[in-house]
């Protein structure tokens, strides 16, 4: 939908085909990073975001004993061109959906259109849908996700999903506000990690929090990999590893137990592709570069795709514009995918875990601020959300 808004802004006629028959607000929390937030602000969506989303002040990385390893600021005051936002995924999708319908027209999005494949000539692309119908267009952008049929046709011999051994359990619960109500907390290590952040600005103003959380656990026997579905319900067996965590301002077990509708999903991605574009067809978002949800960059990189795609097509005739887009975005996305596999900015958790052996240890005696900032700055550079320079 961000791509559609950007393309429309550049004067293109856009049609969005959505697989599901009815669009409903699903999911829990999502983070919109400063670089993708800038795209949305430039589209005039900043005021709408500020009404419902939390402007994230910082990310706090902590040990399982509650030590503060690093506070990584994410606000405009810290030097970024736009805020980082934490928001309910369903609310965010509908914010974009409403904008698309308002600007492109009520019929700009057609539901119940699962893509099965495509064919193309030098001048046109014909998209085939599961309902037996087709649609002809000048260009096709496959934004059809992890199991993209467009990607499958471009790369028919691609291997299976890549699984790194971690299952993610997700939930959300309304609770008392923690701290300033604008802080994201990531605690633990690569094997057992807890992520928490508030996602409702409306509740924050009332001193309450709709708290999104993710519990990540590395397990010996993976489950539900090839048939991964983020709506799959979870059992409570994931809670046990977190009983050893000690946070002064929150009870992780209590937060998880108080949540209804916990889901599970494996941490999976795909190996980076050698190309995204063929003729008048290209990929974007998870169809192009599915990545581990580390550094909150999956959706943000997809939004950047949309902005760059629109800019390249505005500057270059099709299909040359698609190749220009790929030349800019593929190397960046590939670096993010590979860096996320190594932990991205969360590498500071493992640095601390290797050195901090108990609650009485002092972080400042074991890790320098310069070492931590080097990790954070390197990831900002790779992902593309550097601070503004004077």
What does this structure look like?
- By secondary structure, the chain is α+β, with helices and mostly antiparallel strands.
- 32% of the residues lie in helices and 24% in strands.
- The chain contains twelve helices and 17 strands.
- It has helices at residues 2-9, 34-42, 46-52, 89-104, 149-154, 201-204, 252-257, 298-315, 320-341, 347-355, 363-366, 369-383; strands at 16-17, 29-32, 54-55, 58-62, 68-73, 85-88, 109-110, 115-120, 125-129, 134-137, 140-142, 162-176, 183-188, 192-198, 208-218, 263-269, 281-283.
- A seven-stranded mixed beta sheet has the order 5-4-13-14-15-12-16.
- Helix 1 runs parallel beside helix 8 (298-315) and helix 8 packs antiparallel against helix 9.
- The two termini are 33 Å apart.
Lateral arrangement of strands in the main beta sheet: 5-4-13-14-15-12-16
N- and C-termini, Cα separation: 33 Å
Major beta sheet, specifics? 7 strands, mixed
Mean pLDDT across the residues is 93
**Content-based structural category:** alpha+beta
How many helices in DSSP terms?
A: 12
Q: Judging from the principal axes of the Cα atoms, what is the shape? A: globular
- Give the total of beta strands: 17
Low-pLDDT residue spans: none
N-to-C order of helices and strands: HEEHHEEEEHEEEEEHEEEHEHEEHHHHH
Radius of gyration based on Cα positions: 21 Å
Oligomer: single chain
Give the percentage of residues in beta strands: 15-25%
The proportion of residues forming helix, as a percent range, comes to 25-40%
């Amino acid at each position: 939908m961000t791509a559609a808004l950007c393309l429309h802004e550049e004067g293109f006629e856009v049609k969005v085909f959505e697989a599901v028959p009815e669009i409903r607000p699903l999911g829990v929390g999502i983070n919109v990073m400063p670089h993708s937030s800038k795209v949305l602000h430039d589209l005039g969506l900043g005021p709408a975001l500020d009404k419902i989303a939390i402007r994230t002040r910082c990310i706090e990385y902590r040990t399982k004993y509650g030590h503060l390893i690093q506070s990584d600021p994410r606000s405009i005051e810290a030097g970024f061109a736009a805020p980082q936002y934490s928001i309910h995924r369903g609310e965010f999708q509908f914010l974009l959906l409403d904008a698309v319908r308002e600007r492109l027209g009520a019929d700009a999005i057609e539901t119940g259109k699962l893509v099965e494949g495509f064919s193309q000539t030098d001048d046109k692309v014909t998209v085939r849908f599961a309902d037996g119908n087709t649609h002809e267009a000048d260009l096709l952008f496959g934004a059809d996700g992890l199991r993209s049929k467009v990607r499958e046709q471009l790369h028919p011999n691609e291997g299976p999903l890549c699984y790194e051994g971690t299952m993610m359990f997700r939930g959300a619960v309304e609770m008392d506000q923690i701290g300033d109500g604008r802080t994201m907390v990531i605690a633990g290590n690569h094997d057992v990690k807890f992520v928490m952040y508030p996602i409702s600005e409306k509740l924050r103003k009332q001193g309450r929090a709709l708290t999104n959380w993710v519990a990540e656990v590395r397990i010996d026997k993976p489950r539900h990999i090839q048939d991964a579905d983020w709506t799959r319900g979870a059992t409570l067996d994931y809670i046990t590893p977190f009983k050893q965590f000690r946070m002064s301002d929150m009870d992780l077990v209590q937060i998880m137990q108080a949540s209804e509708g916990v889901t599970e999903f494996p941490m999976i991605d795909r190996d980076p592709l050698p190309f995204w574009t063929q003729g008048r067809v290209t990929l974007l978002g998870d169809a192009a570069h599915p990545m581990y949800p580390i550094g909150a960059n999956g959706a943000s990189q997809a939004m950047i795709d949309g902005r760059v795609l629109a800019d390249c097509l505005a500057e270059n005739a099709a299909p040359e514009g698609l190749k220009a887009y790929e030349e800019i975005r593929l190397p960046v996305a590939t670096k993010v995918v590979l860096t996320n596999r190594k932990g991205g900015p969360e590498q500071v958790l493992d640095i601390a875990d290797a050195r901090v052996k108990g609650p009485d240890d002092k972080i400042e005696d074991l890790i320098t601020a310069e070492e931590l900032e080097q990790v954070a700055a390197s990831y900002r550079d790779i992902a593309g959300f550097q601070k503004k320079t004077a």
